[in-house]
Amino acid sequence: MANDFLVFGGAGGANVITQAAYAALGARASGFSSGTANSAQCNKTWRQSSIMAAVLAQFISDRTGQDVLDDGTTATILANLKLSAAAVNGDATKTFSVAAATLSTHAMQLGQAVGRYLGTRVFTANGTYTPTAGTTGVIVECIGGGGPGGSTVVTSTGQIGVGGGGGAGGCARSYLTTGFSGVSMTIGAGAAPGGNGGTTSFGALLSATGGAQGGASPAAAPPYVTINGYGGSGSGGNLLNSKGGDGTLGIGTSVTSFASGAGGSSILGAGGGGQPTTTGGGVTAITRGSGGGGALNGTTSPAQTGGSGAAGAIIVHEFS
To answer: Has this prediction a pTM greater than 0.70?
Structure first.
C-alpha cells in the first residue's frame, strides 16, 4: 500500500544539527526570525515532524490496508486512523451480544490478525459460514455444549441425595487465512440429564467436545460424595486447545449439611450453581457451553432432576 508521507533529511550524515543543539535552540519556542536561514536548523525541524508523520501514516496503512495519500485532504486519513485504533483496541461504538463483546476482546488481545478488524459474529445454530465481504482472515472459536448436572432419587428417613455438577464444553481457537469460506458449522447441544454435551465443529478444521454429565445421586445415608462431570476438550486449534471446567462434587456430611455440585465454567463464564441444603432441581446453565448444576434432596423427599447444560457456540472474528 502507498504511503505518501516520507521522511525529510533522514539519511546518514544529513545536514541537520544535533539533538542536543536542537533541544537548546531558542527558535524552538519563538520560531525562526527573519533573515538568513540556517539550513541545518531548518532541516532538523522538518525532519522532526516528517519522521512522525511517516511513522503514523505507515501504521494507518499497515492496520487498514489502505493507501495514505498526500492529496491535500484530511477526512480519509482521519477515518482510517480511527479504524486503526479500533483494530488495536476494539471499537467501543460497535454493539454486540454479551458473548460477542467478550470474545471480541479476546480477539484484540491475541494480536494475531494483520489488518482491519471488521467485527465479531456469534453462531448458535448449525449452518455454513459465509464471510463478510472483504474478510481475508478470521479467528474462529469453537465451544462445546455443556453437560447436565446429576439427578437424585426418592429419599427415605435418614437419607439424602446430592447430584454432581456437569462439565463444561471445551474450546478450540484458530487463526485462519485460507480455507474458511463455505465451511460447515455444527453447534454442540447442551445436554439434559441422561446425556453429555455435544461437539461443536468448524468443518474438519477445529472442534470442541461437550462436557460430561455430573454423577447421579443414590438415596443413601451421609456422609458421601457424588462425582462431578468432566469438561470437554478442544482440538485442531492453532492458537488454543483448552479443556472446559469440571463440575464440582456433590457433598453430604449429614442430613442437615449437604450441597449439590455446581456446573463447570466454559471459556465464556460460569455454569449453573449448586444447591445448598434446599431440596430442588439442578440449576440450568445459561452461559454458552457451561455445565448444569446438580439436583438436591433432603431426607424423605421426592426425586429431583439435574439442571441442563447450555449449548455451545462458534464465534468468528473477521479481519480484512
So the answer is: no
DSSP 8-state class, residue 28: H
Side chain identity at 290, as an amino acid letter? S
SS3 state of residue 41: helix
> Last residue of a domain, which of 48, 63, 88?
88
Strand partners, 296: 162, 280
**Which pLDDT does position 133 carry in this prediction?**
93
The number of beta carbons lying within 10 Å of the beta carbon of residue 286 is: 16
The answer as to whether 158 is a domain residue is yes
Structural domain includes residue 51 = yes
Which of 88, 113, 143 delimits the end of a domain? Answer: 88
Q: Report the amino acid identity of residue 158.
A: G
Please give the residue range of the domain that contains residue 58: 19-88
Cell of 15: 545536514
Distance CA 278, CA 259 (A): 8
Torsion of CA 217, 219, 221, 223, to 10 degrees: 0
What single DSSP character describes residue 153? -
Residue 9 lies in a domain: no
Contacts of 7 (CB under 8 A, 6+ apart): 47, 50, 51, 54
pLDDT at 109 over 60: no
User: What domain count does the chain have?
Assistant: 2
Q: Angle, nearest 10°, between helix axes 75-89 and 39-64?
A: 60
- Residues 99, 90: Cα–Cα separation, whole Å: 15
Whether residue 108 is predicted with pLDDT greater than 90 in this model: the reply is no
Question: Which cell numbers in the block locate residue 60?
Answer: 494507518
What's the pLDDT at 100?
Answer: 44
User: Are 28 and 175 in the same domain?
Assistant: no
pLDDT in tens, 37-59: 688 877 877 788 887 878 777 87
189 and 317 fall within a common domain: yes
1 is a domain residue = no
